[in-house]
Each structure stands twice: as structure tokens, then as C-alpha cells.
Specification:
Strand content: under 5%
Order of helices and strands: HHHH
Shape: globular
Radius of gyration: 16 Å
Structural class: mainly alpha
Distance between the termini: 44 Å
Number of domains: 1
Number of strands: 0
Helix content: 55-70%
């Protein structure tokens, strides 16, 4: 029997499950441990389907960008445009 396809909420929970220990990491060693945890969850017999994890990351990022837009006083009809502009502006500033 195949597993049911997780809904958007469950996919976001996957994203939160992975992001939480990574954000709590204060050292490179702790970040490596978080990455190892993620790798274990994505491999083996009980592995999560990576597509659901990616969906969750995308949904979570959308929620966070909309929250950021709201915090910057953007009107609801402009959230997506503002988010796209923010990503295009911020992307070149990321370290290599």
C-alpha cells in the first residue's frame, strides 16, 4: 500500500522540522549535525519523498515572504510582486 500524498500543511511541517534545528545551531558543528539529521530523514526505509520536502520549503518561504511584506506595509494585492522584487534584490547579495 502506498503512503498518502501529504497535504500542504504536512509539507510545511516537514520544512519546519528541517529548518528548526538548523536555525537553532550556533556553530558549524551544530549545523553539520542538523544537515546530517536532514540527510537521514531523506534516506533509508522511512525516507520522506524529497518532492514533498521541497513543496514544504516553497510553501514556508511564501508564508515568510508574505509576512515580511506585511511587516513592510505592503498592500495585500502587492505581496507577490514585492516578494519577487525582494528576492531579486537580495539574491545578488548572497555570499558565494
Amino acid at each position: 500500500m502506498t503512503e498518502p500524498v501529504p497535504d500542504a500543511t504536512q509539507c510545511v511541517r516537514f520544512a519546519v522540522e528541517f529548518l528548526t534545528p538548523y536555525m537553532a545551531a550556533d556553530t558549524q558543528e551544530e549545523r553539520a549535525e542538523a544537515a546530517e539529521y536532514i540527510a537521514r530523514r531523506l534516506s533509508g526505509l522511512d525516507a520522506l519523498d524529497p518532492i514533498h520536502v521541497v513543496r514544504g520549503q516553497l510553501y514556508l518561504n511564501e508564508i515568510l515572504l508574505i509576512s515580511l511584506a506585511k511587516a513592510n506595509g505592503v498592500q495585500a494585492e502587492n505581496y507577490r510582486t514585492w516578494g519577487g522584487d525582494w528576492l531579486r534584490t537580495f539574491s545578488p547579495e548572497l555570499p558565494e
